[in-house]
């Protein structure tokens, strides 16, 4: 109390100093400048990442193009060797003036070119003069042409396999040449050559979306799906290369002009950026290169960098807009925070006065809380006592039910015991007379009677024990059978007729097994009490499932219930029995047990006479071990 008085007398706190107003606009400008700097530094890295990804995708196209060219060349290089082994070619070289043989060889070479899809097949003598050719019928016939200046001729004449790529001096078509020596005995008397055109490669590249070029070791672009790049160079042509080109008439020297290109490596990725100034403006490409080693070619794929640049710009734009949005949100939040601080500063004085008033009221609340805690403790003790009393009433109800069944149970035990005694005496007599089979049968009957009494004792023990408070899945069919087993002696004594058809499958409900068994025993016992004096007593049990609920009906053929009895049937200490025959707690206990299971217990009269009590419970999933079975 002294502390409270001191707190009340304490002078109010001085008002807080008004905070200096801070403006978010300068900070926002600095943040925007920093964002622009970060984006400017990040853009080249983002663009390079997209370029590398594009190059990785194009690698498959490049590998496919190189594989196709390698396959075409490898399929063709053995053909001149096979053709050179034809005896008719060596014979024509020995007899070049044989007018009967020459037409046959020409036609044979033409048919070979047609069947193998070759551009040209031709036979040259040791001087390089073409004496027979597949093109002998055409205006561009090789017959009479000299090709001694071609490297493939000199290589084959020296005994090797000649190969060369060039622009045809007669046909004007780019092609690849293979040549093999024609050997007559031990002497090379001529050369047979085949040519394949390379235009088909370019046709397959047109749909790739990129530009594919083939360069030789002199940096001359020999193949490309861009016709304006044919025979252009993507690097300096060595002086020795120019001399070889001129001597072998490989390309037209006048067309060997360099492309206005600049090349730069894309970091350590292995790719290059090639920038070419053309008539349509500056074009930038991502280039990667593969090899066709047998032909001495470098195959490169050039993909425009514009899509990767657009992707990078899009990503940076989205990131920039997102960052700008975040900055704007931060600026708004900052502005609101400043206003909140000003509002808090204005409220500081009022808050100090309110705190003083709160301290005064706190003392009253502490006293009220202490009194409330005492009342809560009293109520908690009362509730615990109530639960204890209810549990004792439940146990008392079960003992009362056992008391009602005691006479029937006595009869149920005395009858088997008398039978056991008689069977035992008979067994002894049979043993004395040496009739062991009959003695064994009597002993088996004694065992059956003992099992019967043990079963009744087990059900009585389970029914009489104190139930647990917890609930869980309970097999309803088994509970009903246990309750009927307990009530069997009383039912038999009363001569009651029971109408009950157990379901084929078990029905699982939420509850407690012992307490639910007690409810069923109470309802059957009440039904028997209601039909006392009526012959014969009839009790019907019906178990059904409706949706997610289980319904158990207990029906009797008694006089039914009056309106007052229906209204008070579940009230404690209400009974319609004669004085001294019941406490009026059975239905009340059963009602509370079912309610604890989140169920309902209702009573009604049947149109045909008698009463019906309905237990309604929630269905439950069977335990895991039962579900597994």
UniProtKB/TrEMBL annotation:
Q: Which GO terms describe its molecular function?
A: ATP binding; phosphorelay sensor kinase activity
User: Transmembrane region positions?
Assistant: 312-334
Region entry Disordered: which residue ranges? Answer: 1-21
Q: Which reaction does it catalyse?
A: ATP + protein L-histidine = ADP + protein N-phospho-L-histidine
Q: Where in the cell is it found?
A: Cell inner membrane
- Residues forming coiled coils: 337-399
InterPro entries in UniProt = HATPase_C_sf, HATPase_dom, His_kinase_dom, HisK_dim/P_dom, HisK_dim/P_sf, Sensor-like_sf, Sig_transdc_His_kin-like_C, Sig_transdc_His_kinase_DctB
Protein topology in the membrane: Multi-pass membrane protein
Domain Histidine kinase: start-end pairs: 408-621
Q: Which Pfam families does this UniProt record tie to the protein?
A: HATPase_c, HisKA
Q: Which PROSITE patterns match?
A: HIS_KIN (PS50109)
EC number(s) per entry: 2.7.13.3
Question: Which CDD domains does UniProt cross-reference here?
Answer: HisKA
Q: Give the primary localization class.
A: membrane
Q: Where is the composition biased (Low complexity)?
A: 1-10
* Cellular component terms per the entry's GO annotation: plasma membrane
Query: What does this protein's UniProt record list under function?
Result: Member of the two-component regulatory system DctB/DctD involved in the transport of C4-dicarboxylates. DctB functions as a membrane-associated protein kinase that phosphorylates DctD in response to environmental signals.
Q: Protein name, please?
A: C4-dicarboxylate transport sensor protein DctB
């Amino acid at each position: 109390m002294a502390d409270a008085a001191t707190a009340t007398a304490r002078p109010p706190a001085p008002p807080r100093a008004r905070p200096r107003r801070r403006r978010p606009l300068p900070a926002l400008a600095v943040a925007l400048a920093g964002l622009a700097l970060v984006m400017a530094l990040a853009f080249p890295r983002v663009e390079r990442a997209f370029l590398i990804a594009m190059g990785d995708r194009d690698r498959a196209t490049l590998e496919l193009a190189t594989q196709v060219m390698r396959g075409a060349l490898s399929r063709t290089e053995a053909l001149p060797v096979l053709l050179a082994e034809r005896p008719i070619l060596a014979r024509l070289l020995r007899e070049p003036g044989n007018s009967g043989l020459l037409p046959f060889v020409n036609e044979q070479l033409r048919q070979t070119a047609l069947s193998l899809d070759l551009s040209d097949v031709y036979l040259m003598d040791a001087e390089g003069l073409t004496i027979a050719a597949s093109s002998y019928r055409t205006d561009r016939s090789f017959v009479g042409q000299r090709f001694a200046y071609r490297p493939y001729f000199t290589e084959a004449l020296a005994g090797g396999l000649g190969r060369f790529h060039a622009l045809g001096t007669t046909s004007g078509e780019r092609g690849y040449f293979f040549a093999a020596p024609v050997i007559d005995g031990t002497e090379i008397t001529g050369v047979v050559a085949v040519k394949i055109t390379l235009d088909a490669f370019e046709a397959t590249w047109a749909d790739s979306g990129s530009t594919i070029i083939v360069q030789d070791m002199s940096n001359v672009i020999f193949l490309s799906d861009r016709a304006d790049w044919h025979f252009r160079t993507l690097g300096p042509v060595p002086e020795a290369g120019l001399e070889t080109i001129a001597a072998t008439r490989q390309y037209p020297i006048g067309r060997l002009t360099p492309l206005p290109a600049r090349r730069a490596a894309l970091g350590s990725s292995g790719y290059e950026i090639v920038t070419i100034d053309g008539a349509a403006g500056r074009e930038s490409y991502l280039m990667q290169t593969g090899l066709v080693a047998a032909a001495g070619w470098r195959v490169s794929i050039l993909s425009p960098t514009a899509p990767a640049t657009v992707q990078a710009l899009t990503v940076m734009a989205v990131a920039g807009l997102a960052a700008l949005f975040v900055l704007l949100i931060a600026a708004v939040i900052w502005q609101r925070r400043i206003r909140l601080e000003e509002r808090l500063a204005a409220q500081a004085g009022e808050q100090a006065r309110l705190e003083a008033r709160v301290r005064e009221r706190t003392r009253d609340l502490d006293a009220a809380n202490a009194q409330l805690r005492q009342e809560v403790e009293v109520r908690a003790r009362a509730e615990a006592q109530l639960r204890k009393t209810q549990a004792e009433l439940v146990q008392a109800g079960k003992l009362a039910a056992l008391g009602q069944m005691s006479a029937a149970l006595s009869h149920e035990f005395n009858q088997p015991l008398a039978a056991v005694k008689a069977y035992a005496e008979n067994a002894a007599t049979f043993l004395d007379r040496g009739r062991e089979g009959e003695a064994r049968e009597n002993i088996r009957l004694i065992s059956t009677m003992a099992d019967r009494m043990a079963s009744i004792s087990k059900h009585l023990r389970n029914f009489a024990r104190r139930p647990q408070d917890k609930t869980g899945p309970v097999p309803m069919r088994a509970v009903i059978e246990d309750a009927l087993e307990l009530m069997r002696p009383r039912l038999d004594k009363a001569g009651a007729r029971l109408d009950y058809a157990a379901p084929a499958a078990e029905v699982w409900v939420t509850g407690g097994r012992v307490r639910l068994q007690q409810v069923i025993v109470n309802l059957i016992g009440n039904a028997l009490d209601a039909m006392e004096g009526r012959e014969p007593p009839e009790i019907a049990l019906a178990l059904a499932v409706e949706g997610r609920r289980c319904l158990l009906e207990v029906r009797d053929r008694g006089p039914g219930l009056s309106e007052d009895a229906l209204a008070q049937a579940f009230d404690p200490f209400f009974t319609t029995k004669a004085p001294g025959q019941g406490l009026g707690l059975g239905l009340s206990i059963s009602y509370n047990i079912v309610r604890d299971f989140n169920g309902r217990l209702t009573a009604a009269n049947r149109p045909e006479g008698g009463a019906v009590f309905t237990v309604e419970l929630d269905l439950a999933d069977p335990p895991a071990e039962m579900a597994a079975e």
